[in-house]
Structures are given as structure tokens and as C-alpha cells.
Amino acid sequence: MNLRILCFGITRDIIGQFEYTTSLESGATVADLKQKLSLQFPEFQALKSLRIALNSEYANDETSLKENDEIVLIPPVSGG
Q1: Measured CA distances, 59 to 13, 30, 54, 78, 79 (Å)
Q2: How far is 77 from 62, CA to CA, in rounded Å?
Q3: What phi and psi, each to the nearest 5 degrees, are found at residue 26?
Q4: How far apart are CA 12 and CA 61, in angstroms?
Q5: Contact by Cβ (8 Å): 72, 8
Q6: Are 58 and 26 in contact (CB under 8 A)?
Q7: 3-state secondary structure of 19
Q8: Which of 17, 45, 75, 76 has a beta carbon 3.0–4.6 Å from 9's, enabling a disulfide?
Q9: Residues 11, 5: Cα–Cα separation, whole Å
Q10: Which residues, 6+ apart, have CB-to-CB distance to 8 below 8 Å?
């Protein structure tokens, strides 16, 4: 299945674009997506936390992905 991913903050810097398209096998989970991103972009391994939102809600690693889901990478947030 084809997945369209929106990237914010440092994830946008790592991938090099705001919108990124990739593919995974049907039935893939958020954990599968994180693993694929870490293999394609080793800089992801250095992130202390990376949240993923599916269709405007936070998703855990076991959440299944479906084609046409809105997938958003939410990088670690810092501030002061």
C-alpha cells in the first residue's frame, strides 16, 4: 500500500521534504513504518521520541496503517 506522510520539524529536515510517499505491505503497523524510516534515514534512530498521528489522533506502535490514512510525523518538542 502507498502511504503519504506529512513531516514537521526535524523530521522534515531529515527527510528533506514536507510530504513524503512510501509503501509498505498491507497490514503494516506504525512500528513497521518507524523501522522503514530508520532504515531509509538513519538519523531517525537518534530521535529520543517520535510520535505518529493517524487521522488526527496519536497512534501507538501496534496501530495498523491503511492506504489513504493521514500520517503525520511529530518530532520531539523542546522549548523554554
Answers
A1: 22, 7, 6, 21, 23
A2: 23
A3: -55, 140
A4: 21
A5: yes
A6: no
A7: strand
A8: 75
A9: 11
A10: 72, 73, 74, 75
From edge to edge, which strands make up the β-sheet containing 19-23? 19-23, 2-7, 71-74, 51-54, 57-59
pLDDT at 22: 94
Write the DSSP string, 46-76: G-S--EEEETTEEE-TTPBP-TT--EEEE--
What cell does 16 get?
528533506
pLDDT digits (tens, 9 = 90+) for 29-51: 999 999 999 999 999 988 888 89
How far apart are alpha carbons 77 and 80 in whole angstroms?
10
